[in-house]
Specification:
The complex is a heterodimer. By secondary structure, chain A is an alpha/beta fold. Chain A has one domain: Peroxisomal Thiolase, Chain A, domain 1. Chain A has 10 helices and 17 strands. Chain A has a 6-stranded mixed sheet with strand order 6-5-7-8-2-17, with helices on both faces. Chain A has a 5-stranded mixed sheet with strand order 1-9-16-15-14, with helices on both faces. In chain A, strands 3-4 form a two-stranded antiparallel ribbon. In chain A, helix 3 runs parallel beside helix 4 and helix 6 packs parallel to helix 7 (273-283). Chain A starts with a strand and ends with a strand. By secondary structure, chain B is an all-alpha fold. The longest helix of chain B is centred in the middle third of the chain and has 15 residues, at 31-45. The radius of gyration of chain B is 11 Å and the shape is globular. The two termini of chain B are 17 Å apart.
Chain lengths: 355, 73
């Protein structure tokens, strides 16, 4: 469905990246495949380095670190936060909500709303859309959209299908009313009939964790994982993205009456480099307008790849200039969503290492 | 479909492929090879093939038939 908003802006983005760098070359020996076969994947899929959290680090740790940094850097006042929207699939606990944990750890005011949203690859868009809606309320002036995941902890190190690309990260995006009337066009679609394309089968209430669900098994193609690990059907996800994403972008551009050539950047979720290149080709967009360098340098951190894309590739430009950008996320759910909006003149746009 | 065979041979890094070639005989018919083939079929013939359909492919002929059937729809 098409969605339309007015008078909303992103006033700052901070990315929080774990300091630990894991290198594909060092991991190649973990897989059951011959090394030369594994190395073929490197250039095509963009497997190089990815950031993973040290043992025991949780989503709230990354978010609290980032918010404290913003407060220390003079970019954010503690009492100004009226809402926290945390989009994650790796909460600290089943209950309470991790957004409440973050609020409590930071000692934020009680007169606010905290919400956890279970979304992944399209989590940046879903979070923004919710923030835009909350800002209809006069008493809500500043919304923190927190995208954070530590899914490396749920991914088997012997699963060549997923481990080389998985990344951990968090981002803090501040959304406020803009005072202007510039439209923001968006769309969102869901297909729960394909819910098994990306999942963590066991460990919830449907299949509780037991010794049996922890057994590591070969899936028949040489990847070894347990039912408690993240599992992805790469072929089906690829076919879904190639089938659904280009028409979604074409339709968004038509809805906004904006030809693709007028868009400065296509800041898309980055499952792997191969998929981003194929999307650029299919949409006939130059590669330099659709950066694909996040997954090979930081990994696929689910909904966090887009904010990382903005802080790494635009950085200061998002503070100094105004740019017309198209965000698009697609994956788990299945969920796919895109937003066409102007960004720029932000108060801040940078990345920090989590220590 | 001459072009189809040529493109398949390029991806699989072999001299030629024929209708009767069993796909498991190709060394490069692995997850990466299959993904590259799906991408080629998507961009050249504008059809998309699911993993369930792909696992039923035994010979190159099976794949060619899926593509032709989907293109006719």
């Amino acid at each position: 469905m098409n969605l339309l908003y007015h008078g909303r802006k992103i006033s700052g983005i901070l990315s929080v990246l774990p300091s630990t760098i894991s290198k594909f070359d060092d991991e190649a020996g973990n897989y059951s495949f011959p090394r030369d076969k594994t190395m073929r994947l490197k250039s095509v899929m963009g497997f190089n380095e990815h950031r993973v959290v040290p043992e025991g680090v949780c989503v709230s740790d990354l978010c609290v670190f980032g918010i404290e940094r913003l407060i220390a850097d003079g970019k954010l006042e503690k009492d100004s936060i009226d809402a926290i929207l945390l989009i994650t699939q790796s909460p600290d606990h089943f209950m309470p909500p991790t957004s409440n944990i973050i609020q409590g750890r930071l000692g934020l005011k009680r007169d606010m709303i905290c919400l956890d949203i279970n979304q992944g690859c399209a989590g940046f868009e879903i979070g923004l859309l919710q923030a835009f809606a909350l800002l209809d309320q006069q008493e809500i002036r500043k919304v923190l959209v927190l995208n954070a995941d530590v899914l490396s902890r749920k991914t088997s190190k012997q699963d060549r299908n997923s481990y080389p690309l998985i990344g951990d990260a968090a981002s803090i995006t501040i959304v406020e009313r803009s005072g202007d009337d510039i439209p923001i066009h968006a769309n969102v679609q869901m297909d729960g009939s394909q819910r098994e394309a990306l999942q963590i089968p066991a460990g919830g209430f449907r299949i509780p964790a037991t010794p049996a669900t922890a057994i590591m098994k070969d899936d028949g193609s040489g990847n070894i994982r347990s039912a408690e690990n993240l599992v992805m059907n790469g072929q089906d996800v690829f076919s879904f993205v190639m089938t659904e994403v280009p028409p979604m972008i074409q339709s968004l551009a038509a809805y906004a009456d904006t030809p693709l050539e007028k868009i400065d950047y296509f800041l898309f979720h980055q499952p792997n480099k191969f998929m981003i290149q194929k999307l650029a080709e299919k949409l006939e967009v130059p590669y330099e307008k659709m950066p694909g360098n996040i997954v090979e340098n930081y990994g696929n951190s689910s909904g966090v790849t887009i904010p990382v894309n903005v802080t790494v590739n635009l950085g200061e430009r998002a503070v100094l200039e105004r740019l017309k950008v198209c965000f698009a996320g697609f994956g788990v759910g299945l969920t796919w969503s895109s937003i066409l909006m102007d960004i720029g003149k932000m108060d801040f746009c940078y990345s920090v290492n989590f220590e | 479909m001459q072009e189809f065979y040529k493109k398949l041979a390029d991806i699989l890094e072999v001299e030629t492929v024929s209708r009767d070639s069993p796909v498991e005989d190709f060394e490069n018919w692995d997850s990466l090879g299959v993904l590259a083939i799906l991408a080629m079929i998507d961009s050249t013939y504008k059809v998309s093939i699911s993993s369930a359909e792909m696992t039923k492919v035994r010979k190159v002929a099976d794949l060619e038939d899926i593509v032709k059937t989907k293109m006719a729809k």
